Amino acid sequence: MKHVFNLILFFIFTGSLIVLTSCEEDGVSIVPPNNPGTETVVVSGYISQNTTWTADKIYELSGYVVVDSGATLTIEAGTIVKARTGSGAASSALVVARNAMINAQGSASAPIVFTSVLDNIQPGEVVGSSLSVEDAGLWGGVIILGNAPVSTGSGDTEGQIEGIASEYLFGRYGGNDAADNSGIFSYVSIRHNGTEIAPDSEIQGLTTGGVGSGTQIDHIEIVASDDDGVEFFGGTHDISHLLVVNQADDGIDLDQSYAGTISNFFVTHTGGKGSNAGFEFDGPEGSTYTAGKYTVQNGTLKNTGGPGRAMTLKSSSQGDISGVWVTGYGEFVTVEGSSANANFAAGELTISGCEFNSADITDLSMGAIVPEGADSVASISSFASANATAAAPSNAGAATSEFDGWTWGASAGLVEN
Asked: Looking at the predicted structure, is the pLDDT value of residue 158 above 80?
């Protein structure tokens, strides 16, 4: 997670608003198609009434597009959404504000695709031919916000999502409704995102903030994010069948006492910047809503570009991790800091039923597979036998068939345990 200076973001978002005023009424304009027979609809600014995007058109995001409180954006299966390329003031992103709804229900035969305008993908296609898995950071990403509990600081029950300046209230997230419903986001692929909106600050492929358990999120693919694949700030929503391909930073990043379940996930990357981990999990950030614990189960972490670290658990991290197959990393897990180590010792942070490729982690050296602070061969051996096994993926790992037919990753042969 990276912090953003509000002053910088004020000018960034002001720049976006300058773009918005040049568009036609209701933030929608029609431009000539980039493919004969395909109409392109440029969208910018606020969506303040119920709106449907249909699969026979391509929708182009110009700057920040905000589904405002009280409105529902429906995106038909098979719809392609392309975002204008740029960084800083030229960034484009889709934001679903608190009390707004997203109804994006793709399917295995007709996924919804968010990508860059530089992508030549057309309706009816799963993958275009103009961009590769290395083309990252071309636009912002997708942000969904809700009213579920978050732990943003002592006494705070709300936060301002990173990437949006504090002047803009649609960037607020969090509350006390654990069952809050932000809609449905299913069979969606988000590609080539993560543009820099300020120095060292990018938007993830999918960012959620305070999203509640009434929200359905499943079958999500992130490709070539120039930051994290997904990042969840608090909230209680679940996510299943998540594929992250070639992210630059962490595959899955959890913060602020996220208390949902992540199941059947596959993270594969070739290295990158930042911590370059499969997981980076933090816990509560203050005294408010400190009980939230994550459950992460049945998935694969695969690194094909250097040793790296599979899991970084830090800053009061608390939750249960099980059934994970780890391959290609030099380090299995590091538990950083006294608070996370205390949670591990107390059983508030657990790792069980995991398996790792012994060809990568050949010795259980200090810092490679034990929590920070372990100081004996006995503790290393005990941790390994209790929490993970050096073996082929027999009982752990993702059910990769869930990604067949609709994802870039599967079509490129990148989803193999």
From this structure: yes
